[in-house]
Write a structure and sequence with these properties.
Radius of gyration: 22 Å
CATH superfamily of the largest domain: Type I PLP-dependent aspartate aminotransferase-like (Major domain)
Helix content: 40-55%
CATH class of the largest domain: Alpha Beta
Structural class: alpha/beta
Distance between the termini: 53 Å
Shape: globular
Strand content: 15-25%
Number of helices: 16
CATH architecture of the largest domain: 3-Layer(aba) Sandwich
Low-confidence stretches: none
Number of strands: 14
C-alpha cells in the first residue's frame, strides 16, 4: 500500500537524521526575521541562511517598483509568452539583461524565465539533443542534474574541478555537439569553477559551455555582472544562466547567449513554451534591481559584503580548528562549516537557534555522505556586529570537550 510504503520511507529518513521540515517566516526576508507556526507568536531570529546576498529582497525602492508594476500591468500575465503573456516589462528586462551580457557574449540576447530551475531544464533539454554529449560537473545543482536526465543527449560526468579528466573525455568524444555543464559558484561549497580553463578546453575541442551563475550574478564582478565579468571571459561559446531571485532580490532567471541560441530556445524549450509567463510586475521590479546592482549602492553593498566575508572566515577558521570541523575553501558569501555527522550538524543548528540565530543544517543527498554542514550565508544587510554575534554563538555551541581543549 502506498501510505505504508511512504511511512516506512519517512521512518528511515528520521532514523538517519534526514527529515526536512519547512519553517514559516512571518516577516520579510532580512537578517532579522520572525519565524514560527501560523497560530503562534513568532520568534525573532538573526538569520544566516538566505541567498539574498546584496540585501535587496526587502529594498524599499524595489518593493515600490513591484507595486507600481502591479498597478501598470495587473497581478498576472494571463498566458504563456508565446500566446499573450509577453509584456513590455518582460521585453524591457530582456533588453537590459542582453545589454549587460554583451561584453562577454557576442551578439547576446536574453530570455527571461519564471525560475532558475526552469531555465536550466529548458537549456539542457533543448540543446541536449540525441547527437550531443553533456559533460557535467559532479557537484552541479539539482536543476542541472535533472535537466541532464531529461535530455536526450549522452551524459558524462567529470570530478569536481578536474579539467584533466574533462580534457580526456572531450578528446574521446565523437559527438557533433559537446556541451560542458557547470555551476559557476557551487551552492553548497561556495568555491568557483575553473571557467577560464573550461573555456580553453571548449575552444580546443569545439565545445560549448553552459554555466549556471545563480550565486554569482549581482555579486561577482566590478559591476555585479557576474562570473564572466569577474574572470574577464568573452566567447560566443558561452550559454549563461543568471538567477534573479538571489542577489537581485526578486524572482526568476534568464538565459543569455548568442541570438541564434536564444531563438532556438524560444522555439523548442518546453519549460518556456508551455508555462504561464511570470507576472509583468516582477519584471518591472527587476529593472529597478538592476539599476541598484550596477550603481553606486551596488558597489557599496558588494564592498561591505567582502568585509563581512573576511571577518567571518577569520573567526570560523579558529573555531573549526578547535572543534575538528572543516571550513570550506570559499571566498564568496557561501561559507560551509563542515561538521560531518548528520545528527551533529542538526544539533549544532538547534543550539544556535536556541541562542537566537538561524543557520540551516545541510545533509545528504544535497551534499555527499559524511559532509553534513552548516551552510552559512552572508548578506550585505548584515552588520559586523551580526557576524560577531554568530561567531560567539558558535563558540558557545561547540562540544564541551573541544571547549576544554581550547
Amino acid at each position: 500500500m502506498l501510505l505504508d510504503h511512504l511511512k516506512r520511507a519517512a521512518a528511515a529518513r528520521e532514523t538517519e537524521a534526514l527529515t526536512r521540515r519547512r519553517r514559516i517566516a512571518h516577516t520579510a526576508c532580512a537578517p532579522h526575521q520572525s519565524v514560527g507556526a501560523v497560530d503562534a507568536t513568532p520568534t525573532p531570529l538573526l538569520t544566516f541562511c538566505s541567498n539574498d546576498y546584496l540585501g535587496l529582497a526587502n529594498h524599499a525602492s524595489i518593493a515600490h517598483a513591484l507595486a507600481d508594476g502591479a498597478h501598470r500591468y495587473g497581478a498576472g500575465s494571463g498566458a504563456s509568452h508565446l500566446v499573450s503573456g509577453h509584456s513590455l516589462a518582460h521585453a524591457q528586462l530582456e533588453h537590459e539583461l542582453a545589454r549587460w551580457m554583451a561584453p562577454y557574449i557576442p551578439q547576446a540576447q536574453a530570455l527571461y524565465f519564471c525560475t532558475g530551475y526552469m531555465a536550466n531544464l529548458a537549456v539542457l533539454t533543448s540543446l541536449g539533443t540525441a547527437d550531443a554529449t553533456l559533460f557535467c560537473e559532479t557537484l552541479n545543482h539539482a536543476s542541472l542534474i535533472d535537466g541532464a536526465r531529461l535530455a536526450k543527449a549522452d551524459v558524462q560526468r567529470y570530478p569536481h574541478g578536474d579539467t584533466q579528466v574533462l580534457d580526456a573525455l572531450l578528446q574521446a568524444s565523437q559527438d557533433k555537439l559537446k556541451l560542458i555543464v557547470t555551476d559557476s559558484v557551487f551552492s553548497m561549497d561556495g568555491d568557483l569553477a575553473p571557467l577560464a580553463a573550461l573555456l580553453a578546453l571548449a575552444e580546443r575541442h569545439d565545445a560549448w559551455i553552459i554555466v549556471d551563475d545563480a550565486h554569482g550574478f549581482g555579486v561577482l564582478g566590478g559591476n555585479g555582472h557576474g562570473v564572466l565579468e569577474h574572470l574577464g571571459l568573452r566567447s560566443e561559446r558561452l550559454v549563461y544562466i543568471g538567477t534573479l531571485g538571489k542577489a537581485a532580490g526578486v524572482a526568476g532567471a534568464f538565459v543569455a547567449a548568442h541570438e541564434t541560441v536564444i531563438e532556438h530556445l524560444v522555439n523548442t524549450a518546453r519549460p518556456y513554451i508551455y508555462t504561464t509567463a511570470a507576472p509583468p510586475a516582477v519584471a518591472h521590479a527587476l529593472l529597478t534591481s538592476l539599476e541598484i546592482i550596477a550603481g553606486e549602492e551596488g558597489h557599496s553593498r558588494r564592498a561591505h559584503l567582502a568585509d563581512l566575508i573576511a571577518q567571518l572566515r577569520q573567526g570560523l577558521a579558529a573555531l573549526a580548528a578547535q572543534a575538528g570541523w572543516t571550513l570550506g575553501d570559499s571566498d564568496t558569501a557561501i561559507q560551509p562549516l563542515i561538521v560531518g555527522d548528520n545528527a551533529a550538524s542538526l544539533a549544532l543548528s538547534a543550539a544556535l537557534e536556541a541562542d537566537g540565530i538561524r543557520v540551516g543544517a545541510i545533509r545528504p543527498p544535497t551534499v555527499p555522505a559524511g559532509t553534513a554542514r552548516l551552510r552559512i550565508t552572508l548578506s550585505a544587510s548584515h552588520t559586523a556586529a551580526d557576524v560577531a554575534r554568530l561567531l560567539d554563538a558558535i563558540a558557545r555551541a561547540m562540544p564541551r570537550r573541544h571547549k576544554e581543549a581550547a
